[in-house]
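Hi both,

Apologies for the delay on this - the queue was longer than expected. I finally got the pyridoxal-5'-phosphate-bound model through. Below you'll find the protein sequence and the ligand SMILES exactly as submitted, and right after that the structure tokens for the full complex including the ligand.
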Amino acid sequence: MKYKNTNDPNEIVSFKEAVLKGLGNHKGLFVPTEIPKLPDSFFEKLPNMTDAEIAFEVLRPYIGQEDITDAQLKEIVTETFNFPLPVHPLNEREFILELFHGPTMAFKDVGARFMARCLGLFSTEADEVTVLVATSGDTGSAVAQGFHKVNGVRVIILFPKDKVSPFQEYQMTSLGDNIYAVEVDGTFDDCQALVKQALQDENLKERVNLSTANSINVARFLPQMIYYFSAVKQLHHTLKNNALLVSVPSGNFGNLTAGLYAQKMGLPIQHFIAANNANDTFYQFIYSGKYQAKPSVSTHSNAMDVGDPSNFIRIQELYNYSWEEIKKHISSEMVSDETTLDVMKEVYNQYAYILDPHTAVGYYALHKNLKEKEVGLVLATASSKKFEKVIQKVITDFPSPKVDLTTCAKQQIPNDYNAYQEIIRQK
Ligand SMILES: *Cc1c(COP(=O)(O)O)cnc(C)c1O
């Protein structure tokens, strides 16, 4: 399988090159040149497969044997999918896919673990890779935990001062070794801008092998297809006579894009809902056909505070840049902070189930759109335990996790490219 660049038709690369490079020329994203259909025989045996077995078969066609052999891929998927992805029934027709049973209690663990292991294979001692990440919290913690002690890979994480929770900070700063956490006196957008500047700095790239672990990296978003296969596997009795509607709490749209790929490979999903918070660029696009990026605003579901989703271009590409085609596959909802809290309260009162704010946005969108005869699934992207400040607005006695940051290490820099560059150049 080859990958093409969405901004440069002349750049065609292998999986390995796409992973190592992260971002393509002219800031383009890599997408597979085709999306393979899985045979009927695969779907017949799906209900009896483990998640690692599913991952092997689904991902195999996307990765050339010369980049990763069968034996290596088996090992990578077994290590990546070593925690459960359970479907929790809320009622007879509404289900929650819990993606938060990994080390950092958010869905990004799967992509981070998979990518870390691919990079570990591709880098050599002589040719160390430096992975740059900007985070508002969840990506940094998943990448830190996923890449910790992977040989030949050094990770530098930028996070905005006073904007991540103590728990998230602990997950990024407590590891050491090959993980460097850097606090920037600025916003998340400033952190992201610094990373983008470094990735395009030709002088720097001559000295250091740079890559990135945000969901623009194909190794981050492709393994997320497995969530959807695992859900259909677990729901296969319920789905016999009913169509499946899936709601995805969305920020940069990596997760939703993976679902669309899974559907295109033949997975029986009827329709998707992209659930937005007040950062409703995609929602506005679905209603107007016009894509208007805007600065992000802060909400209770802060991992979805994205005003210009990076994977939007991959969705466009998948449907030949046709708004009509996109609308056939995806609907959208915008959910306010006020509604988010109301939904959390209602679901807690009715089902004694605590939704985290991101999942609450997704659940509201699902509940509103679910039609008779349909089965609904919402992706639970994080555990409520990670967002206690918001949960406590609804459930006053919800406990705060105890974290001790005294033994943690971080560097602090101003919002300044030279200070950042110096850290990257240190070996
Ligand atoms: C990253 C994240 C999202 C958004 O996922 P995308 O793939 O960027 O759309 C949603 N919820 C949580 C908890 C996250 O960490």
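Main takeaway for now: The first strand starts at residue 3 and ends at 5.

I'll put the files on the shared drive as well.

H.
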